[in-house]
Amino acid sequence: MHRRDLLKALAAAPLLTHAGSLLAAPATDAKLLFVFLRGGYDANNLLVPIGSDFYYASRPNIAIAKPGADNGALALNSDWALHPALRDSIYPMFHGGEAAFIPFAGTTDLTRSHFETQDSIELGQEIGGRRDFRSGFLNRLVQTLNSSKASPAIAFTDQLPLIFQGGVQVPNMALRALGKSGIDARQSQLIAAMYKGTPLQQQVAAGFAVREDVSRELTGEMQAANRNAITTKGFELEAQRIARLMKDKYNIGFVDVGGWDTHVGQGGANGYLAGRFDELGRGLSAFSQEMGSAWRHAMVVVVSEFGRTFRENGNRGTDHGHGSVFWVLGGGIKGKQVAGEQLAITQANLFQNRDMPVLNEYRAVLGGLLRRSFGLTPAQLDHVFAGVKPAELGLV
Description:
disordered N terminus
């Protein structure tokens, strides 16, 4: 193997520290899966403000009809309804107390830039302050939990995301690529031998151990899929794989899902966005079922960098906006709520006459959820989100 190929292969392998505890059974029952919808999804067609005439006037081609109409929205309460694509997945979870939504949520970042705002959320640092790109907030959470208990964490991604950058090295693993490893057994041995006796020996060995362990865990499931025993596709299949690992081995997981930047041809009750909601909803429902008894200790938080413009554009789509809607799912949450600070959906209440305002600042929202889920002390929470007063939304 050439040195250049060796280094390239090594870069693809997950690196980690705390190797001895990473694969051990978690000492805490609480589990968190953080789902990032990259592209800024249209939250106004996810959580439909059915009491707002302004909504229907602003979206003549893409609005979701009121409950009771053909393929209309699914009523949650007198003010809000859910996109009909989620009828068989998230809607039953909501009424079963396992799902809640937080409208008017997001950052105070006003750039409306995908990259700037994604970075803001993943770093979890104060907007306008000095950014430390070596300190993502989930890494800080792992650091905090490692001070008192094992807290294995993993990113289900090709590259380690910014949210997990920091002092504790966290493995990343793209589950869809597990069957296409670029490193065979002989190459693994060569790489391990190359770093034997060096300070990186333990990290390299642990990285290969994670890959081997995950592959072994999922081999049977993948073979079943080849025999058509599993007929799901896309995120639904990946969510099942994530659950199989998280219910036994990992407390904290991260996955991102793209395809939410709907400038053109977004659709309404049917069409492009409806298809994305359907696949996402089925995936999250599959995750909850695959978790089994561990679901009662799990929490899934779904966020996006921002929402979309309230009015549809000339291409029957929406553009970059501001306020969004966060999802909170879990077997032990106090669901069946549309939570947080809210206001009437009128033109006068739009932010800069175009977007949903942010009333529920994301660090305060996440801080409140994490504090209760993991039992964080004020000092521990301050390490994760410095200077934040956690929002008490009554969901955990």
